[in-house]
Structures are given as C-alpha cells and as structure tokens.
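Field reference: sequence -> structure
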Amino acid sequence: MTAAKTMKHKISQMAVTAMAVALLGACTTPPPPPPPQLSYVTLLPSPDGSIGKVVVQGQRGEQLLTQAQQGVFLDGSKPPFAVSAEQLERDFGASMKARPALPEQFLLYFEQGGAQLTAESKSLLPRIVERALSRLAVDMSVIGHSDTQGAANANEALALKRATAIAEQLRGLGLKDTVMVIESHGERNLLVPTPDDTAEPRNRRVEITLR
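Structure field:
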C-alpha cells in the first residue's frame, strides 16, 4: 500500500470513528426538557357583577389584579395579562362547572291580613320553581313574616300560615319532592323597623332561600 493510500485509509477510519462518537453521544444525552408552564390565577366578576381586587405575591415579585379576566403568574414575575374566554374554558372550565351554585333568595309579599299574595309576587312563583329545578340538588327554606299590626302570637300563626301556603303552591307547581324547611318568624325579624301595631307591606312577606 502506498503512503498516499495509507493516509487516505487512516482519514476514513477517523471520520467513521468521529461519526460513531457523535451518534453515541446523541443516544446517551437526552434533549433538555421544555421549560415548565407557569401556573396563573385569573380574576372573575362576582355573581352580582362586582369586581374585587387580588394581590399575588410570588418569589419573583408582587402583582395586583383589578380587572375582570386579568391573569397573573403565581411567581409574580410578570405584570397582569388578558385571559380570553377560550383560554378560561380550556384552563378552568372543569373547575368552574364543578363550583356549587350560590344560594338564591326570593321575597314574596302579601295583601294585608291574610295569606293572599300580591299579584306581582304571585308572578314570581314559576321563576322560583324554574331556579329550584335547575339545581342538581336543592334545599329550600320557606320563612314566613308579618308586620306588627295585631298581637304577636297571632302574627306568629299568620306568618306560619303564609309560609305553609307558599310551600303548598310550590309543590303544586313542580316541587313535590323538594326538601322544604317551613318556619315562622312572626314579627320578630322585620325587614322595615316599625313601631308596634303598624301595617307595613314589606314586612308581610315570605322569604324563600334555595341552597
């Protein structure tokens, strides 16, 4: 073998060896993992539409959320950013759907001296039934009240009569199997404070709470 051929053969062997080392290194050294995704919180409106404030204190800073659908990373490293409805659904949709429904309250008012609803309050009964049936499970309290006109013990009985009458109407409208706690507060918890023996329409009421 000539010197030129010997040199060419050695160069080829070196190239093959270098390629094998490179391949071996690629097999034994995994690629670096992608950077971890930062967790974040989002500010949402309250059920009544009001918007509060949230301060997020993290290892890398402090940020303040003041607007609906603003988000901020938990480490506090970056200022607030907008969170789209699509992103909210993707990241928090399951959690938002799992939230228990907030209590709802309805006030029904009565004509003076009996258990007859005002026309406006009577029109609310279908809405109450609809809201109760929309819940996966519901507990309902039906609490009767009176104004201060007349004797206290008579008002206690009248308030119970009102609560019982409303419960019966709701059962007839579709809430037959709904758990209802029926109570009378008489004139003890006035919505509008008044002197004794005062006829006040807003105190003649039944309070219904759905939980």
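Note: Helices lie at 3-28, 85-98, 119-122, 125-133, 152-175.
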